[in-house]
Each structure stands twice: as C-alpha cells, then as structure tokens.
C-alpha cells in the first residue's frame, strides 16, 4: 500500500495530541494516511504497553487510518544510530509516503526532539540507492518523501505553517480520549503524570485555538518545515 502521508511518533498518542486534526482532514479529502509509532510507551507513568496498543488501535479507527505500525524501539533509550535509521527507512520504502509528519524539533520530553531528528535522518537515508534493505525477503527500492513537517508539541515553537482543523476538532478530541489510560480519570488509582493532570486537555485546546487564531480560524495545528514550501497558486492559501 502506498501512503500519501505518514505520521511518525516517538510514543503512541504523540500524533493524536499534535497532528490528528491534520490527519483527519486529509483522510476526509481521500488521502491515505498512516501512523508509525516508534515505541510502545512502556516507560510512561500510567497504563501498560498492552493497554497502549489497544488504545492505539481504537484511535486508528477513529481517524480512519489506512495503516498503523509500531517499531517497538526501547522507550526513552532509543538513539539515532544506524539500526534505528534503517528500521524507519524500511517502513518508508514499504509505504512510500509523499509527506512525513514528525515529532517536534525540540520539546519537554527528550524522545520528541530525538525522534524528530531520527526521522529526518531516516528520510534522507531511505533515498540512498546504495542502502540495501529487504522486506519479506524482497529487496526494496529507494524512496525519499518530498517533505518532512514537524508538528508542535508541548513547548511553544513559532509555526512555519498552520493547518485549519476546525471541522475536525471533535475527531481530534475523540482520538486523544481513546488513550484513556493516559489522561485525567478521577477514578484512577495510578500516579499522576504530566499529561494526566485535570487541566492538560484544556491546554491542548488552548494551543489549537492559538494556532487557529494565527490564520483566522477556530482551531489549527502548527508545523515547522525543513525547507521553504513552494506554491503554484497564491489563491489556494488560506
């Protein structure tokens, strides 16, 4: 299956929190979109890997994803070394996305900036014809996405572009809440985490409103770019 867009995330729920409105809006337009999670989030304060996998599958259905995979990298301890780059390159060559959405270039959680940098390196590596990779015993062909856009997460980063997600805000919220083990639950006996505090989801909405305000819409999601984007028709800009 060839994808139009592949969102790559260090942890299950990163994509939902940061770019699920963009994902939902493009699925609605008929594009094939997938998510690749790098880890199972096993170092998280709440939940378990098994629970996170179930929640990921539920979120995938809500968003209408064409595919969702998890590479099972070691949470917190994965690095940017060759084996991790090659593992991602193998997935890029499998699905051949035109656009990749990646973690923020820097953020509160070290895995986010590290994950974003790792994906950038893997996207370049994937296009090198002398890198040989196989899938199911078949030699893969090189593939390099046309663009990598980094979604903005906890830390505020001035966006280079903002996607209007106003019509898809409810889907974004539903996909986030699919990860019910991770967020505020007055009945939960698990320790409080940074994202399980009662006000965290209010922050997510405030961030979306802030980004939307920048382009005069209700809700938006911001991204930074690795190269200046070009347009052929100025009239298509919001």
Written description of the protein model:
Helices cover 35% and strands 18% of the residues. It contains six helices and nine strands; from the N terminus they run E-H-E-H-E-H-E-H-E-E-E-E-H-H-E. The model has no long low-confidence stretch (mean pLDDT 97). It is an alpha/beta fold.
Provide keyphrases for this structure.
238 residues; alpha/beta; seven-stranded mixed sheet; two-stranded antiparallel ribbon
Quick recap of the structure?
The protein is α/β, with parallel strands linked by helices. Helix content is 35%, strand content 18%.
> How would you sum up the global shape?
globular
Rg for CA atoms = 17 Å
Query: What distance lies between the first and last C-alpha atoms, to the nearest angstrom?
Result: 31 Å
**Biggest sheet, open or closed, and with what strands and sense?**
7 strands, mixed
Q: In percent, how much strand structure appears in the residues? A: 15-25%
Number of strands: 9
Which secondary-structure class do the elements indicate? alpha/beta
Number of helices: 6
Report the mean per-residue pLDDT as an integer: 97
Model regions low in confidence, pLDDT < 50 over at least 5 residues:
none
- The residue fraction in helices comes out at 25-40%
With strands numbered from the N-terminus, the spatial order across the biggest sheet is 3-2-1-4-7-9-8
N-to-C SSE series? EHEHEHEHEEEEHHE
Layout of SSEs?
Blueprint: E1 5-9, H1 14-28, E2 33-39, H2 49-63, E3 67-73, H3 82-95, E4 99-102, H4 110-125, E5 134-135, E6 138-139, E7 147-151, E8 161-164, H5 169-177, H6 200-214, E9 220-225
Parallel strand pairs: 1-2, 1-4, 2-3, 4-7
Antiparallel strand pairs: 5-6, 7-9, 8-9
Helix pairs in contact: 1-5, 2-5, 3-4
């Amino acid at each position: 299956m060839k994808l139009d867009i592949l969102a790559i995330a260090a942890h299950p729920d990163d994509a939902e929190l940061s770019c699920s409105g963009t994902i939902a809006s493009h699925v609605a337009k008929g594009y094939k979109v997938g998510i690749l999670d790098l880890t199972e989030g096993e170092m998280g304060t709440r939940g378990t890997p098994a629970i996170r996998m179930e929640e990921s599958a539920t979120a995938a259905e809500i968003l209408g994803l064409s595919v969702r995979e998890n590479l099972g990298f070691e949470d917190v301890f994965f690095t940017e070394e060759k084996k991790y780059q090659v593992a991602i390159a193998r997935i890029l060559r499998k699905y051949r996305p035109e656009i990749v959405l990646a973690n923020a270039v820097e953020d509160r959680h070290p895995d986010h900036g590290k994950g974003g940098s790792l994906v950038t390196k893997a996207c370049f590596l994937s296009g090198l014809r002398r890198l040989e990779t196989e899938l199911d015993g078949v030699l893969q062909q090189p593939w390099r996405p046309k663009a990598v856009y980094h979604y903005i997460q906890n830390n505020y980063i001035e966006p280079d572009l903002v996607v209007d997600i106003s019509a898809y805000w409810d889907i974004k919220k539903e996909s986030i809440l699919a990860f019910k083990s991770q967020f505020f639950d007055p009945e939960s006996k698990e320790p409080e985490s940074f994202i399980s505090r009662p006000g965290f989801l209010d922050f997510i909405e405030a961030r979306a409103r802030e980004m939307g305000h920048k382009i005069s819409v209700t809700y938006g999601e911001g991204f930074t770019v690795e190269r200046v984007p070009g347009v052929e028709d100025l009239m298509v800009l919001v």
